[in-house]
Amino acid sequence: TERTLALIKPDGVRRGLTGEIVRRIEAKGYTLVRLELREATPELLAEHYEEHHGKPFYEPLVEFMLSGPVVAMVLEGERCIEGFRSLAGATDPTAAAPGTIRGDLGRDWGLKVQQNLVHGSDAPETAEREIGIWFPER
Ligand code: GTP
Ligand code: MG
């Protein structure tokens, strides 16, 4: 079985959607191996978003991720990396399909960065890397 790092971003926590998002993860059958309300730090985010350094949305993205607590989770289940991204839906909440977290609950706020409620690792190597960043004791 596989593990992935999932985050409920500050917009999801602020809007009181933590329960709804966790409900969808559990209903899908993924196991919550870790779940913590956390404050990100600039150092942690620099590692987490390493691939986005230098992109135009990088600074606003980090600022957004520091705007409030996030829920950091490690999920476990068969093909949960692909499966959680499928639950999350497309990056742009307007384009995300109905039935997905972003499609059902996200909206376009007309801001510099997409506030799209959740993050999910996108490949086995990034999942291991990101789990190590958020839960270094593992
Ligand atoms: P994550 O699960 O959060 O990693 O989303 P993703 O894999 O669907 O997107 P990606 O890793 O490409 O980008 C990380 C985050 O940066 C996104 O979730 C958005 O919040 C933001 N972002 C990415 N691309 C854009 C963009 O083109 N414009 C804007 N405004 N924000 C973006
Ligand atoms: Mg990504």
Automatic annotation (TrEMBL):
ATP binds at residues 9, 57, 85, 91, 102, 116. Residues 1-138 form the Nucleoside diphosphate kinase-like domain. One of its GO terms (molecular function) is nucleoside diphosphate kinase activity. It is an enzyme of class 2 (transferase). Its EC number is 2.7.4.6. The keyword Acyltransferase does not apply. Its cofactor is Mg(2+). The active site is at residue 119. Pfam families: NDK (PF00334). SMART domains: NDK. It is found in: Cytoplasm. Keywords: ATP-binding, Cytoplasm, Kinase, Magnesium, Metal-binding, Nucleotide metabolism, Nucleotide-binding, Phosphoprotein, Transferase. The keyword Membrane does not apply. It catalyses: a ribonucleoside 5'-diphosphate + ATP = a ribonucleoside 5'-triphosphate + ADP; a 2'-deoxyribonucleoside 5'-diphosphate + ATP = a 2'-deoxyribonucleoside 5'-triphosphate + ADP. InterPro entries: NDK-like_dom, NDK-like_dom_sf, Nucleoside_diP_kinase, Nucleoside_diP_kinase_AS. Homotetramer. NCBIfam families: PRK00668.1. Belongs to the NDK family. Major role in the synthesis of nucleoside triphosphates other than ATP. The ATP gamma phosphate is transferred to the NDP beta phosphate via a ping-pong mechanism, using a phosphorylated active-site intermediate. HAMAP family: NDP_kinase (MF_00451). This is Nucleoside diphosphate kinase. It comes from Nocardioides salarius.
